[in-house]
Amino acid sequence: MNEHVRLDTSPHVSDEVRKTTCYMCACRCGINVHLRDDGTGTGKKKIRYIEGNNDHPVNRGVLCAKGSAGIMQHYSPARLRKPLKRVGERGEGKFEEIEWDEALGIATGWLGDVRKSDPKKLAFFTGRDQSQSFTGWWAQQFGTPNFAAHGGFCSVNMAAAGIYTFGGAFWEFGSPDWKHTELFMLFGVAEDHDSNPIKLGLAELKRRGKKTIAINPVRTGYNAVADEWVGITPGTDGLFVLALVHELLKAGKVDVDYLIRYTNAPWLVVHAPGTAEHGLFARDADQKPLVIDRRTGKASPYSAQGVKPDLRGEIQLEDGRVARPAFHLLTDKYLDEGYAADQVSERTGVSADQIRSIAAQLAEAAFEKEIVIDRPWTDMKGERHEKMIGRPVAMHAMRGISAHSNGFQTCRSIHLLQILLGSIDCPGGFRYKPPYPRPVHAQPAPHGGGEPGKPLAGPQLGFMRSPQGLLLEEDGVTPQRIDKAYSWDAPMSSHGLMHMVIANAHARDPYGVDVLFMYMANMSWNSSMNTAGVMKMLTDKDENGDYIIPKLIYSDAYSSEMVAFADLVLPDTTYLERHDAISLLDRPISEPEAVCDAIRWPVLEPDRDVRGFQSVLIDLGARLGLPGMTNEDGTAKFKDYADYIQNHQRKPGIGPLAGWRGEDGSKTGRGEPNADQLQAYIDNGGFSQTHVPEEALYYKFANKAWQDFAVDMGIQDGPVECVFQLYLEPMAQFRLCAQGLAEPKTPDTHKQRILDCFDPLPDWYAPFEGEGIETSEYPFHALTQRPAAMYHSWGSQNAWLRQIHGHNPMYVPGDICDAVGLKTGDWAWVTSHHGKIKVPVQRMDAVNGKTMWTWNAIGKRKGAWALSDGAPEAEKGFLLNHLIHELLPPKSDGMRWSNSDPITGQAAWFDLRVNIEKAEAGEAESLPQFPAQDGPVPDGADGPLRYGAGWLKEFMTR
Amino acid sequence: MTMLPDRQPGAKALGLVIDLDTCVGCHACVVNCKQWNTAGYGAPLSDTEPYGDDPSGAWLNRVHSFEVTPADAPAQIVHFPKSCLHCEDAPCVTVCPTGASYKRAEDGIVLVDEDMCIGCGLCAWACPYGAREIDPVEQVMKKCTLCVDRIYNDNIPEEDRVPACVKTCPAEARHFGDLADPTSDVSMLVAERGGMDLMPEQGTKPVNKYLPPRPKAISDMAPLPAIAEPKADGGVLGWLDRALDRL
User: Fold this and answer.
1) Euclidean distance between CA atoms A387 and A375, whole angstroms
2) CA separation for the pair A387, A383 (Å, rounded)
3) In this predicted model, what pLDDT tens digit does every residue of B206-217 receive, in sequence order?
4) b/e per residue, B193-230, with b = 16+ CB within 10 A?
5) Contact partners, residue B200, CB within 8 Å, separation at least 6
6) Which of A238, A376, A587, B218 is most buried, judging by how many CB atoms fall within 10 Å of its CB?
7) Which residue in the set A356, A359, A868 is minimally distant from B51, CB to CB?
8) B6: which chain A residues are within 8 Å (Cβ-Cβ)?
9) Is A236's Cβ below 8 Å from some Cβ in B?
10) Per the CB < 8 Å rule, is A801 touching B31?
11) Contact B78 A941 (CB under 8 A)
């Protein structure tokens, strides 16, 4: 009956394929954008299909749900169309469209006034910005100390703990050695950085039959396929890890040779309580840390020729002080029975047997399954090694570790575990991605200050070396920065504290700002703690009837919740209409075996009056006469961002992109600007890739071949020594300040907290929120996770993705459901010390029994994102953010601390404690609700979507 | 009533092998399928109220997540992607009153000839797997085509001539090939991993196979023996001394 059907199995797909970089999340995969004539006879091209680029180092041809829905993001009805000037009250969303000249004129006027008078009155914070090396440089030229991106509320604990400890980091700056590892531990990872590489890696482990242990309160996603699940209680990962350390030390299962060669384990720590040297390293006259030389029993510089450092013992130095190797202190600390498996079991929710079993598995993988690669290499001291020895245990961690007030110390604990096993950057271990390793002394220090009309002396963000570098006013107490980064509140806050900017500016503490300038940061909704409070802060007025935060410029591509609060909106392009540099100066896309960077380029031209934000910044920079963006005659130095990407030099020969440098494009890393550089990237599929020499593939922290290559590539200007800092001396310095033994002296308010939390050895303390409340009133934990098929709030405008995650139930453990009388489909009130929300309930058992959770950023304000007012995102979706305050509950003295890690300032989202009760019958609507915002764009079409109908052909012909 | 083709010697049985041990439930296959097929074979895969109160549309592939609680282990989640299984005895074909629903003799792919489809929905009713969806706008039956317009397509590179869901799967949980050939990669994978039919009691003889999740358990490796009593000087530090001597 069907013989008559003929089918074209080889239809035309597309007219052209343009290769660029995805931006549907932070992963930055390579994509092939297929374009095809739209069939209307106008010659216009439309996207036929977006697929992964097979040659791309990040995703190797695969593409996730988000990336595959890029068409719907690109054609979203929520796209802004033209610059906007507010005409209603803030938050209403009433705007008039204006021309770019007027918009840029207004912005130049506001910014110019600030720069002339007091540049710190500009707070410039960019959210999910992938051009921070540029936006930071722009802010530096402007002269404000108040710049940061979203790292402070995302993952600074990972970045800071990693850089301070071993000059690398989880996050996206390293990767498990998927090809060689025997055992993989994954801590607190949902769909975090970086998603496709982790999935590809897990697939490789499955193929090779190697084991994954997932540590996560929630057993979904990667944790669902892991071979062993540790359903840990939130905020206790550090205790669990230190129990593993206890077991390993007790059994002598540590790599002593590795510790002596590559870490500060042998360095001598002065034991002189009550003096300004206590806890600091003993150093010689050249400031070289000392070790005990086992050959002589005497103190010797750690780097002296032939020295054989001891890891234990005690020595009296020439000046009479007593000192012990850091490792001696370390064993004393972690062999304490308080870290024994039986002791930590109840608190962590992990059985003592499972803890001991995992310790045994780690030891077996590291020491019984040692990997030997026959590849000679030479270390930085000149010693040749015939083989590369691997301890094949790999680890990765992300937000579940990061977003706690003890996250820095917890992440340090994981790095301690890796280093004790000898598994950093060895075969089978956790590997650096170039340009890392880059330890603190090779990183910039943070710069404050800010003088009228002048650029800042250096970058705002960097790594604090010692308390002397804090960014304080002359009183030694008042923070220089609006977010109080690098102050006593958060001394090592390497990414700033974006979550505190609006609250502090509203409280005029430490001062008020004049212009708040933000990019891609949905601060009036899902990117803030205490969302309703932030909305009020943005709309509060002073006694004169003026907004307390006087001027707010915002750039976004879409009609987000934050747009409604802006005074001036600079409409950005979609990711397919813009230039970008995924730069080695910032957050590159390198793989352990290759130095990589990439571009975005306009594979489609905007059909609206919008401009790429970075090009707008270039324009504003020229209008403001900022150095680096203006020629001597006052004209603009760069036409747009593309021009900047090709021609800007951070220092001679070093620019945003490493590939095809030099006038003829023949140089890599270092070289003069090349007028055809972007075209060379386009011709190569949107990225560049330079392979690391074989001899430099492992042990990069001590590898001479890596050092030579890194210098050649312009990654660094000379050899950089990277000794792993198990014992972190700056922490000891802060403690001395808190004891009043060193300058600058810690204010009384902050002393105890620094003494409690700044242990120079990785430590665990209970998350703050649980300590500040009556836990019997809030006995449970509540978390969010990012779904694999939705990124941030951007996804909800996406016609396809919102069919997968249109609303977000609260997943409540069965035990809690039974205790409280809840079942799937019920509504419940969830309360915290700060707020109360009404949510739909779904029962779940594959979760830590004390922990409820929901998907992140699904809930929407009515009127935003071009969705109907009755959209499920607004009616049933909800934000956990309403329960989380940016401040902790008051202490007995009335003092309220920021809800952040006391070391790095990382927002402690996951410290949240809650209670839950069944909600009365009523309307099936999540609460709180807010008045609908007017959209600057109309709601999306009601009519059906028939994407691709224009190409409908007679597939089947009879 | 539509006839199934006689099975020809040497005919292929193309299908998918889906690894439930590896699938992380990320929906990449779901969305990439929608994207490819809305502008590919037949009429678009339409969506109603795309930005409204009740967004809904036609999809050829969906992922369901189930919670399973084994007797002796904690509850776990299994992600279960589901699309047409291209059954050998496809009840959706034999039930079709117009001949629109058919199974190709040469490779076993089950397709809907949309020109002939009257949207009666009998096939969706007959399919025990719920793998067919009527398009809410086009009012024709939609189902997985195994990307029949990719796998033989001379206009795309040879390495990409696999279904969109297979190419895009980041966890490499989806495999495509000829399950009639016992020496094919997919057949060998099925043999090695104990690949299973979905609901074999239905007698549909599905071509697609599922690889079962490997057992997961809390490990019970014996604890590490302590080298000595902690803190006693001859203990860990004594061991350390000996370890350093050996270097």
Assistant:
1) 5
2) 12
3) 999 999 999 887
4) bebebbeeeeebebbbbbbebeebebbebebbebbbeb
5) none
6) A238
7) A868
8) none
9) no
10) yes
11) no
